[in-house]
């Protein structure tokens, strides 16, 4: 018990000395040991790395999970070391609603069939989103969080210890300065017999202050070296975060590529789906009885005459029989490989050049493409139109 009380008193004395030194520095009444420029640059870079890592981590969490309540729930599960429950993505929930709507409204109707097709695509989009969130959390968020909760806490602890060592060092410098000033003042006093004991005390006090200063300087230098090595390790942290950033971009690229492919497939399915608005010959509202035949003919939509675009009940012309327009043909470069869905479409290879043109009444998302003697429909989204 006695030992603990002595240690407590000693710690209280050290804390008081540091507090006095810190306060006097703030008011400009005490000198402060300055760190070298290289050390200050390391501290600045470390602080910037920590601050921007926190912001990037926080905003990436918002990107992956926009719902703040869900983020708080996941945070609590992580702090309690419990597994985060699986959560349905927005795309999967939308797919569920569309499938239920199709079942109730009639799965054999055009609207019901379309709902089913879109629901399947939305479900695939939701699955791709789930995979992206999982991959990004492991490859990007986890390393950033490990740095903030591991390396940075160690750096902060050593920096606080360095600050205490510096305060101790400056306090020792101040005590030594006062002791030497008192000793110098005592030497100017005449050498009377009664002054000698005091001179001995002042000399011993200056010697003790010098010894304390040497010990404080050694501890400060040792702690400064430890802190400097940790701060220089920030360069390795940057390299690690750079690798994680590349993996995040790769996973995001894969995710958006999957979404693009799913939507293109859905677009192709809806374009070939019976009962859609593409190529319908029925006007939005029946013409009035007073409308002249000429006006009625003018308001009727133009019916495509190419294969796959002709309305039901009419014989579609073969693409080989369709002559390209005298003007309006253009060259186009293929962006991605495209596999023809049927004989009316033209298979494409990336980076090849083909001739394309459009026909009156044709779906604007499609063009007629020619490559040598082959001809067929091609999707506009797979092409880069040239001059």
Annotate the secondary structure layout.
Layout: H1 2-26, H2 37-64, H3 68-79, H4 90-105, H5 110-187, H6 196-232, H7 234-271, H8 293-299, E1 330-334, E2 353-357, E3 366-371, E4 374-379, E5 383-385
Antiparallel strand pairs: 1-2, 1-5, 2-3, 3-4
Helix pairs in contact: 1-5, 2-5, 4-5, 5-6, 5-7
Describe this protein's structure:
- There is one protein chain.
- The chain is an alpha+beta fold and 387 residues long.
- Helix content is 62%, strand content 6%.
- The chain contains 8 helices and 5 strands, in the order H-H-H-H-H-H-H-H-E-E-E-E-E.
- The chain has a 5-stranded antiparallel sheet, with no helix packed on it.
- Strand 3 and strand 4 form a beta hairpin.
- Helix 2 runs antiparallel to helix 5.
- It is elongated and about 120 Å long.
- About 11% of the residues have low confidence.
The whole-number mean of residue pLDDT values reads 79
Rough outline? elongated
Low-confidence stretches: 275-317
Radius of gyration: 40 Å
The strand line-up of the biggest sheet is 4-3-2-1-5
Structural class: alpha+beta
| Number of alpha- plus pi-helical segments | 8
Helix content: 55-70%
- For the report, how would you describe the main beta sheet? 5 strands, antiparallel
Number of distinct beta strands: 5
Along the chain, the helix and strand elements come as HHHHHHHHEEEEE
Strand content: 5-15%
State the distance separating the first and last CA atoms: 93 Å
């Amino acid at each position: 018990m006695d030992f603990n009380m002595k240690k407590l008193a000693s710690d209280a004395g050290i804390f008081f000395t540091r507090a006095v030194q810190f306060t006097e520095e703030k008011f400009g009444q005490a000198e402060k040991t300055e760190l070298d420029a290289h050390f200050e640059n390391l501290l600045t870079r470390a602080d910037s790395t920590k601050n921007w890592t926190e912001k990037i981590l926080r905003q990436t969490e918002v990107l992956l999970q926009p719902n703040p309540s869900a983020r708080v729930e996941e945070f609590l599960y992580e702090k309690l070391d419990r597994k985060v429950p699986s959560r349905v993505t927005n795309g999967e929930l939308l797919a569920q609603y569309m499938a239920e709507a199709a079942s109730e409204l009639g799965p054999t109707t055009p609207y019901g069939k379309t709902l089913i097709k879109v629901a399947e695509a939305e479900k695939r989009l939701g699955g791709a989103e789930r995979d992206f969130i999982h991959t990004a959390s492991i490859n990007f968020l986890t390393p950033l969080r490990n740095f903030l909760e591991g390396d940075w806490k160690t750096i902060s602890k050593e920096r606080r210890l360095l600050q205490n060592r510096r305060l101790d060092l400056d306090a020792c410098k101040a005590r030594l300065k006062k002791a030497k000033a008192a000793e110098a003042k005592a030497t100017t006093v005449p050498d009377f017999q009664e002054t000698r004991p005091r001179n001995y005390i002042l000399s011993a006090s200056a010697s003790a202050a010098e010894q304390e200063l040497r010990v404080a300087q050694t501890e400060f230098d040792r702690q400064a070296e430890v802190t400097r090595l940790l701060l220089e390790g920030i360069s390795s942290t940057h390299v690690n975060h750079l690798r994680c950033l590349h993996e995040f971009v790769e996973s995001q690229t894969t995710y958006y590529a999957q979404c693009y492919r799913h939507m293109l497939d859905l677009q192709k399915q809806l374009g070939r789906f019976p009962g859609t608005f593409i190529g319908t010959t029925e006007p939005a509202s029946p013409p009035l009885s007073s409308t002249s035949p000429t006006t009625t003919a003018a308001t009727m939509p133009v019916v495509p005459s190419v294969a796959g675009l002709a309305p039901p009940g009419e014989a579609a012309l073969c693409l080989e029989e369709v002559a390209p327009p005298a003007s309006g043909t253009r060259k186009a470069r293929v962006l991605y490989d495209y596999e023809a869905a049927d004989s009316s479409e033209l298979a494409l290879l990336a980076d090849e050049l083909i001739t394309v043109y459009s026909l009156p009444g044709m779906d604007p998302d499609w063009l007629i493409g020619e490559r040598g003697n082959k001809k067929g429909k091609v999707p506009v989204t797979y092409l880069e139109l040239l001059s």
